[in-house]
Amino acid sequence: MKIAVLGWGSLIWDSRNLAIQSQWQLDGPKLPVEFGRVSMGDRLTLILEEGAKILQVLWALSSTATMELAKENLREREGTASRYIHFIAVDSNSEPPALGVAKTVWDWALVKGLDGAVWTGLGSKRPEGHQGEWDYEARLNYLRDLKENGRSGAAEEYIRGAPSQIRTTLRSMIEQELGWKPLAGPNCTKVSGD
Q1: DSSP symbols for 1-19
Q2: From CA 135, how far away is CA 140, in angstroms rounded?
Q3: pTM
Q4: For residue 189, what pLDDT band results from cuts at 50, 70 and 90?
Q5: Count of H helices and E strands in the chain?
Q6: pLDDT of residue 193
């Protein structure tokens, strides 16, 4: 089976035990991506978020033999529950999703001649004790506070390590305000014709 693993954050530069058989390709589906989840180490990580800027994500070919193995492998790499691992199957027995991210991924996978795709579907998460809106300004304030308190190491590393093509609205604000520019990217391959 040809199953794509979709990525837009740390999967790209820190694949760990992720079973992939190709380099990360730059011509993945276009999805709504933004920094919006406070994770371990005070990192503000990338998620798919409704209303976010639509960006072309990356993908690699899974080296697993089945969709179930691909989902489990991604779940293990992400250290999360199965319910946060999303997938689509493109075969004669499957109906295309009606709308949303799954429909976009299904359409993209069909064009690419893939049998399916897996991706992480973690949602937004605020810092503990945060009250009020979790908008761009609140997220930028969170990062400012980390920097002012000398605790921004992991957050800066994550944001700077994100693939340079993931040019979210908040990333532009972070670069301007905090100076956290992208690091040199991973060994990705741009597919000809794009």
Answers
A1: --EEEEESSHHHH--TT--
A2: 9
A3: 0.92
A4: very low
A5: 6, 9
A6: 35
Query: pLDDT tier at 28 (50, 70, 90 boundaries)?
Result: very high
Query: d(Cα 185, Cα 147) in Å, to the nearest integer?
Result: 24
Dump pLDDT digits (tens) for 142-183: 999 999 999 999 999 999 999 999 999 999 999 999 999 998
Ramachandran quadrant class, 19 (left: phi over 0; alpha: psi -120 to 50; beta: rest): beta
120 Cβ neighbours under 8 A, 6+ residues apart: 11, 74, 78, 80, 84, 85, 86
Q: Are 10 and 159 in contact (CB under 8 A)?
A: no
Q: Where are the alpha helices (DSSP H) in 126-168?
A: 136-148, 153-161
Strand-strand pairing, 58-61 and 116-120: unpaired
**47 has which bridge partners?**
34
Among candidate residues 32, 35, 166, the one with its CA nearest the CA of residue 100? 32
CB-based contact 182:162 (threshold 8 Å): yes
Give the helix ranges, DSSP H, for the chain. 10-13, 67-78, 100-112, 136-148, 153-161, 169-178
pLDDT value at 91 more than 90: no
